[in-house]
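Reagents: none. Just compute today. Ribosomal RNA small subunit methyltransferase E.
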Amino acid sequence: MNLLLLEEADFIAADRVVLADRRFVHMQDVHGVAVGDTLRVGRINGLMGLATVQRLERHEAELHVSFDQAPPAKLPLTLVLAVPRPKMLRRLFQTVATLGVPRLILLNSYKVEKSFWQTPFLQPDVIRENLILGLEQARDTVLPEVIIEKRFKPFVEDRLPAIAEGTLGLVGHPGDYPACPRAVEQPVTLAIGPEGGWIPYEVDLLGKAGLAPVQLGARILRVETAVTALLSRIF
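Predicted 3D structure written out:
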């Protein structure tokens, strides 16, 4: 991890924390810390700063912490994503957190299998765990907002137009569409479908909500690749 993220429960005083979980193990096994060493830390949904190891025991460590640095800015983006295969979800949560996505909406689609919604990777504690791993990688502290929408039509018709209003609305979809824009400087609402793509009905409905289809070329990408490729090109 590139940043040691701290929970409120870690604090024993305003400037002191005690760690005894995977972060403590990481400090020992990866950083090989000793008393007096400093580490980069961040308070979840707060500032970043430095920590000095004050006490190092067999099962825990006590650190003195101070915070004086704001986390990096998020992308001006709402990402709407058709729920992918469960084994891909864990990586996707980490990826969107690492790339600075502030809001992720997981949406149903015709080609999303019903069984995907039963995966334990959609449990709130598992989502949060993987978002934190992504934040640690990127040196960020602010958790993305994750919204789950299981009904495509009511969401796209009733709620998406208000979300997309005042933004550049885009639908990532292979086909005879304009190329995805580059280096966009305005807020964006971006919808990415499942690996099989949106069906024509869904593309039409997303268009009525203010999202225009764009493409990256003839190649069909995995969802996790499409997310990275589209965000890198747009921003």
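The chain has a mean pLDDT of 95.
Action item: order primers for follow-up constructs.
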